[in-house]
Structures are given as structure tokens and as C-alpha cells.
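Milestone 3.1: sequence recovery, worked example.
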């Protein structure tokens, strides 16, 4: 192996070790805060983690990066803030729907869509999963993609209601 390449690989490995140690430190800090339950936000993270399909990182990001920093009043605000709001085209007599806008929190939108696939896997008897199965599961690839985006919006609203009002999503299962 050439000497320059070997040195470059050593530098990359050193950077990897540093980032790995920093991530482990962040995870340890999160675990300590969860164990202590020091604030309402941390208790909300623990509440999300009790639902099957939500892990520590997803719960942490949902609560700390989305639900915690703003006092939402309704589901429309949540959909809009996450980038799941419809974008109508309205010009003169021409009116049509352009699909959902991609604006909103750049972390939450893709993470919520990924969470929906986990939700379908681990919460197959929930009302949200049954709604998706009935409406979109037997369609083509495009229909499933549209459906998972609609499910993501509904799931975010259901999780907000769970945290804000204590209403468990219908048919949701908790971890043992």
C-alpha cells in the first residue's frame, strides 16, 4: 500500500474514532437524562419510547426537535410544520392540487416516513395501519408512496395527541 494512502486511511480512522466516541457520549447523556426523568420533555421522550416501533433516537428527535419547541394548537399546524401540508395551485380559474409541500422541518419529514414503515411492521392492528392497508397497500408503487406520506401526517398528529392529551393511538401496542 502506498505511504500516502496509508497515512490518509490512518487519519480517516482517527476521525471515525473521534466521532464514534462523541456519539457514544451523546447517547450516554440521553440515557442518563431518561433515567433521571428531569424535565417534562424527557418524560415525553420516555412516553414515546413505550410505544412499539419507536426507539430512543426517533423518540428523542421527535420530542426535542419537533414537539418540544412549539405549542401546537391543532393537527393542521403539525402537518404544515412537518412539511406534509397540501400545496394548491390557484391561478385565475385554474385550481388543482400539487401534492404536499416539502417545506417544514428537514429532519422530521424523512424520519417520520421511515417511522411509518416501522409502524406498519410493529403496529399492524392499529387503526392507522388498518387504514393504510385498506386504502393504499394493494395499489401500485406510486399509491403506496402517496399513502405513506398521508400516514406520516396522521401518525405525527396521533403522537402529538398522545403526548399532549394522553390519547393513545387507537389499537397501538406498548412494549412489554
Amino acid at each position: 500500500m502506498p505511504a500516502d494512502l496509508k497515512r490518509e486511511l490512518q487519519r480517516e480512522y482517527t476521525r471515525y474514532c473521534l466521532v464514534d466516541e462523541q456519539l457514544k457520549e451523546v447517547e450516554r447523556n440521553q440515557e442518563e437524562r431518561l433515567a433521571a426523568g428531569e424535565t417534562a420533555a424527557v418524560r415525553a421522550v420516555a412516553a414515546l419510547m413505550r410505544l412499539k416501533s419507536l426507539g430512543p433516537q426517533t423518540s428523542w428527535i421527535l420530542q426535542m426537535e419537533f414537539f418540544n419547541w412549539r405549542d401546537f394548537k391543532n393537527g393542521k399546524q403539525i402537518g404544515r410544520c412537518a412539511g406534509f401540508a397540501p400545496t394548491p395551485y390557484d391561478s385565475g380559474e385554474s385550481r388543482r392540487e400539487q401534492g404536499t409541500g416539502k417545506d417544514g422541518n428537514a429532519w422530521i419529514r424523512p424520519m417520520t416516513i421511515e417511522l411509518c414503515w416501522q409502524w406498519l411492521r410493529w403496529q399492524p392492528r392499529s387503526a392507522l395501519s388498518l387504514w393504510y392497508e385498506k386504502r393504499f397497500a394493494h395499489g401500485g408503487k406510486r399509491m403506496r408512496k402517496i399513502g405513506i406520506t398521508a400516514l406520516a401526517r396522521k401518525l405525527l398528529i396521533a403522537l402529538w395527541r398522545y403526548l399532549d392529551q394522553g390519547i393513545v393511538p387507537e389499537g397501538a401496542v406498548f412494549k412489554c
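The helical segments are 3-36, 40-50, 56-67, 75-82, 108-122, 127-135, 141-165. The first strand starts at residue 86 and ends at 91.
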